[in-house]
Specification:
Blueprint (H helix, E strand, L loop, with lengths): L12 H17 L2 H24 L5 H24 L4 H21 L7 H38 L10
Length: 164
Amino acid sequence: MTTSPRPSMETHPDILDMRLRHEMAERTTSTPRGQAIETLALLTGLYLAASPWITGFNALSTLAVSNLLTGIAYAVLMSGGFGRAYERTHSMAWACCALGVWAIIAPWVVAGNVDTTKTIVNNVITGALALLLAMAASAAVRAAESSRARRSMSTPYTDTSGRS
């Protein structure tokens, strides 16, 4: 009874797919566009977190705490997610879109009378920028995934181990 040789792990389709995803992540995050999105998103999140103290509405504690938590969450998700957990970046970017929308509407929905001109201008501009950067990150991921799908359709899997 003869058994057919088992393919090596290095040529397994799942291993090859993981390598392709990693290479795609490296290519996308090393582009000037990817680096600019990640840097601007980190700065936007840090600004949102510190904005109550920068613009002077830290006495409005409910909005100050909301901006602090939202800004930290945004900075962590956008800067930590874009390069290190590339497969999950698409969903992280959409979560960051929700954080951007929250920053926009927060002056009207958090407890207390915090909808002053200063808070509205600050949160609408910062939230809109956060939303646009998150959408740009999502678009970059989608573009990289679609180009990868086009490439994988044009080059089918072949066993390079030399075995039959």
